[in-house]
Structure formats: structure tokens, C-alpha cells
């Protein structure tokens, strides 16, 4: 699809502007079967973008209708509609009028697929469904729950039979859906509240890689190496020290050409000075 079509389909306003958008798309006339087939044929055979635009515009009201059925997930309605519009564009692009079905029947699967992906990405910080079976459970389980409490064993078995999954998978998904996201570490507000009154998951994790003796030894070795390097650097002339510092020890590395300009020599000469200085350092530190 062209950039124009992408912009047109994705520009769903937030807040109060959303009502105006919905009213606008509802005023767009629906297509007859004959008109729809003619437009789809033009797009399919000639890549006619005007035909594609008319097909998309006439079905935006249907995307709004589908998106409303996902309002229970607590996500912005405008975002759900935008994701559905992406699915609509994908469906229009792939629609083959020779199959003999209406575009709406073909597009509904693409629209729902995009909305499903958006819901799974944003409903929780941690994904609750990753496999195909888990996704099926996630969307169907919300529809089948008749009360806010936990399922009874009989209800679990009923859901498992209807969806073709095991009771273990039903219970696992119900647990995931009932859980709440928790910060891995304390926020600054929690940290400053009352000392020792708040805990985060990070506080309960054991770092099995931690070895205090090894850490002290490594730090001591690092300090020793730094002292040896400083001692070796003191035997170099000021220009060589500056070249090594600029080329190897500074966070912002200096190029050979910049140093050549600074000392008014060639870049090759700077490279030679650098190599000689590194040789002296290695000998002094070995």
C-alpha cells in the first residue's frame, strides 16, 4: 500500500476526537457486492490504489465494530482501531475477488489477528500467551468466565473440553490472567518510604556468580595493573603519552588524522609513534 493509504488508515484520533472519527467512518457509504468486486478486480489486476482506498474507506466502520469487542482489555480504543486498520489494509492487499466471497468475510481474520497481537503485547508487561494454544486460551477464557472468582473443577473441565486443551493448561492460563505485573526493582518513591517496609523480587534473587574473594582479587589485580601502566607511561615522552592516551585510554577516541593535524606530522608518522610507544609499554609491564 502507498504511504497515503497508510496515513489515511492509521490516523485515528485519541480522546474526544475519536467520536468524530467514528461518526465520519459511519457516514461513508457501504459498497454493493457488484461495486466491491469491480474495485477489487481493479486492484488485483492493475494495482489501482484509488480502488484500494475506496475499499478500505468503506470498511473502516467494520474495524470500529470489531475493535469495540476488545474494549474489556483496558486498552485505548483508538489504538485497537488503528491496529485493526492495519489488518484491514493487509486484507485488501491480499484479497482475490475471483474466490467469490465478500471482502468483509476475508478481512475479519486479518483485523482480529492484528488486534490480538496488540492486546498480547500491551495487556501486560510480561506476555501471558506465546504459543498458538495459549493465545486461543487467552481470548476464549475471558469470554467463558461467568464470575470474577476462580473456576471450579467442573468449569475447568468444561472449558478444557470445549477448547480442546488439557485442564492443566486452563488452570495455568487462568493463573497468568489473574496475576498482576510487579516491578522487578523498587521505584524511587518506594525506596524512600519506610526503610525495610517494601520489598521487590530483585531482593530475593541469589547471585550465584558472586564470589567475594574473587571480586576482591580481581579489583586488586586491576589496581595493580593500573599502577604498572601509569609507571610505564611515565617513561614515555609527552607526545607519545598523549597519543596513547588519546588513542587507547580516552572514552572519545582520537583519529590518526586529528593527531597528525595537532602535531603537524603525517598520519603515518603518528601510527609509527603509537606502535613504538605500545612496544615500550609492553616491555615495561612484562
Automatic annotation (TrEMBL):
Localisation: Cytoplasm
Q: Which Pfam families match?
A: Sigma70_r1_2, Sigma70_r2, Sigma70_r4
> Which GO terms of the molecular function aspect are on file?
DNA binding; sigma factor activity
Q: Does the keyword Transcription apply?
A: yes
Q: Which GO terms describe its biological process?
A: DNA-templated transcription initiation; response to heat
Q: Which residues bind DNA?
A: 256-275
This entry carries the following GO cellular component terms, namely: cytoplasm; DNA-directed RNA polymerase complex
Chain ranges of the RNA polymerase sigma-70 domain: 79-92, 255-281
Q: Which UniProt keywords apply?
A: Cytoplasm, DNA-binding, DNA-directed RNA polymerase, Sigma factor, Stress response, Transcription, Transcription regulation
Q: Tell me, what does this protein do in biology?
A: Sigma factors are initiation factors that promote the attachment of RNA polymerase to specific initiation sites and are then released. This sigma factor is involved in regulation of expression of heat shock genes.
Give the signal peptide range.
none
Q: How does it assemble?
A: Interacts with the RNA polymerase core enzyme.
* InterPro entries per UniProt: RNA_pol_sigma-70_dom, RNA_pol_sigma70, RNA_pol_sigma70_r1_2, RNA_pol_sigma70_r2, RNA_pol_sigma70_r4, RNA_pol_sigma_r2, RNA_pol_sigma_r3/r4-like, RNA_pol_sigma_RpoH_proteobac
Q: Per the record, which residues fall in region Sigma-70 factor domain-2? A: 55-124
Which family does the record claim for this protein? Belongs to the sigma-70 factor family. RpoH subfamily.
- Motif mapping: Interaction with polymerase core subunit RpoC: 79-82
Protein's name in the database: RNA polymerase sigma factor RpoH
Keyword DNA damage on entry? no
Amino acid at each position: 500500500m502507498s504511504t497515503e493509504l497508510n496515513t489515511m488508515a492509521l490516523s485515528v484520533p485519541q480522546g474526544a476526537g475519536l467520536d468524530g472519527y467514528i461518526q465520519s467512518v459511519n457516514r461513508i457509504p457501504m459498497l454493493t457486492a457488484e461495486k466491491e468486486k469491480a474495485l477489487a478486480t481493479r486492484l488485483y489486476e492493475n494495482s489501482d490504489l484509488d480502488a484500494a482506498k475506496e475499499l478500505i474507506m468503506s470498511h473502516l466502520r467494520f474495524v470500529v465494530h470489531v475493535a469495540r469487542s476488545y474494549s474489556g482489555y483496558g486498552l485505548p480504543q483508538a489504538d485497537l482501531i488503528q491496529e485493526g486498520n492495519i489488518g484491514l489494509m493487509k486484507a485488501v492487499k491480499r484479497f482475490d475477488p475471483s474466490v467469490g466471497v465478500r471482502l468483509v468475510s476475508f478481512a475479519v481474520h486479518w483485523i482480529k489477528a492484528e488486534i490480538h497481537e496488540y492486546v498480547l503485547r500491551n495487556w501486560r508487561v510480561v506476555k501471558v500467551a506465546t504459543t498458538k494454544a495459549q493465545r486461543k486460551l487467552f481470548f476464549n477464557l475471558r469470554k467463558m468466565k461467568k464470575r470474577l472468582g476462580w473456576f471450579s473443577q467442573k468449569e475447568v473441565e468444561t472449558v478444557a473440553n470445549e477448547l480442546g486443551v488439557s485442564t492443566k493448561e486452563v488452570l495455568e492460563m487462568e493463573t497468568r490472567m489473574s496475576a498482576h505485573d510487579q516491578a522487578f526493582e523498587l521505584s524511587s518513591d518506594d525506596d524512600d518510604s519506610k526503610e525495610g517496609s517494601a520489598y521487590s523480587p530483585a531482593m530475593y534473587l541469589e547471585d550465584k556468580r558472586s564470589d567475594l574473594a574473587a571480586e576482591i582479587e580481581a579489583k586488586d589485580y586491576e589496581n595493580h595493573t593500573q599502577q604498572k601502566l601509569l609507571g610505564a607511561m611515565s617513561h614515555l615522552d609527552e607526545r607519545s603519552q598523549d597519543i596513547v592516551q588519546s588513542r587507547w585510554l580516552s572514552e572519545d577516541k582520537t583519529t590518526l588524522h586529528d593527531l597528525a593535524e595537532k602535531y603537524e606530522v603525517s598520519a603515518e608518522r603518528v601510527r609509527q609513534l603509537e606502535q613504538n610507544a605500545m612496544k615500550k609499554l609492553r616491555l615495561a609491564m612484562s
